[in-house]
Amino acid sequence: MNKIIASADEAVRDIPDGATLMSGGFGLCGNPENLIAALHRKGTQGLTIISNNCGTTELGLGILLKANQVKKIVASYVGENKVFEQQMLSGKLEVELNPQGTLAERIRAGGCGIGGFFTPSGAGTELAKGKETRMIDGRLHVLETPLKADFTIVRAWKADTWGNLVFRKTARNFSPMMCMAGRVTIVEAEHIVPAGEIDPDQVHLPGIFVHRIIQSKNLEKWIERRTVQKKA
Q: FRET partner for 85 with CA separation of 20 to 30 A, picked from 98, 148, 159, 215?
């Protein structure tokens, strides 16, 4: 039951070229910094990444993109990254855009075994091209399919040795459902405690969905755009 792994490099050792990878966080908030760095060191190629976005030009998942390790991105937001823009416009990077709520629900569907769902988001636009549509309550809906991954990497605020997780604020947006939708879930945690120390009512994700845990080290906790109040 103890799922602690010695290092980030060991935790990602079996992620192969061509794998589909879900990565938690929201923008740069809650990024699994150690696991992203380990994948960069490993040099895994041809990744399909499912995430809210792809980091910035120099940070987050942008590290993998800049190193030409990414083949395809499934995301809802693609700003803040000049390399992303260049690779997409040149045809080097395959991009699948989703409305943010649709992306979250597709991931949840993948983790819950739901075969698909109809949503009005994106209906009648380029995003619905080639997809089944249906009129529901007088409104056009488009069929969206579930998303799953070979591996999921996330950062939790706290984990116990069994893999029960607590996330902190915005970092919780996508991470719990991504853990459910990944065949193998790898977690880096800021705090690791013995099993039983987390109040069951405070658990955001039960340990049954977690396979490996590492201790986060030297976190930079990146900020996309630092905004400070102007002096009066």
A: 148
Q: What is the pLDDT of residues 97-109, one digit of tens each?
A: 999 999 999 999 9
pLDDT exceeds 80 at position 173: yes
| Dihedral (CA of 74, 28, 224, 60) sign | negative
pLDDT at 175: 96
How far, rounded to the nearest angstrom, does the alpha carbon of residue 15 sit from its chain's CA centroid? 15
Report which DSSP code applies to 229.
P
pTM value is 0.93
CB neighbour list of residue 122: distance below 8 Å, 6 or more residues apart: 98, 99, 102, 128, 142
DSSP 141: E
Among candidate residues 50, 52, 62, the one with its CA nearest the CA of residue 22: 50
CA distance linking residue 160 with residue 2, whole number of Å:
9
CA distance 130 to 187: 36
| Cα–Cα dist 79/84, whole Å | 8
Give the C-alpha separation, 224 to 30, whole Å.
12
In which band, very low, low, confident or very high, does the pLDDT at 225 lie, cut at 50, 70 and 90? confident
Q: How far apart are CA 105 and CA 145, in angstroms?
A: 9
Q: Pick from 186, 196, 117, 113: which is nearest to 155 by CA?
A: 186
